[in-house]
Amino acid sequence: MASIDWDSISVEPLDRHHDISDFHCASDDLDDFIKNDALHEQKCMLSRTYLFFYEGHVIGFVSLSADSVAVQRLKTDDIVRKQDGKSLYSNLPCILIGRMAVIKQYERKGLGTKILKWAVGLITDVVWKAVGCRYITLDPKAESLALYMKSGLGFRQMEALNPGKIETIYYINIYKLLSE
Question: pTM for the full model?
Fold first, then answer.
């Protein structure tokens, strides 16, 4: 299948009028989320899901939520500090990229990276200007980690709270991202 011209894609917030019954990605869990949980989570004000359309069909989605991160989970050089060098707060605000998927036909064609960059753009162009948030976080499925790491956005693995535990959560320091 040919690649998609990004300019031909439209984005809309999920609502009850959207037909997502034909959405099928490589993950049964993500299929279940978009079909059975995403709208309910929006109604409960837990997340906001955006749908990506091409030729009238939903070909991908991303879900965003407010979150916070404990300062001890950040790399030392990413901690917001007071003038005396101590951490400003014990928890800091962030936006979680909670769920993201592309239909099977368009996997591995760069669409996931474009949706990711769209979400980061929304956060850096709109969200942080309206609401304080310093970081973008995500907890990717193992099979999706490469997409995030190859995006060029500078995701860093969080520090594990328990020694010997493998940490699966990653983050971007928005302040550093915007300063580059």
Answer: 0.91
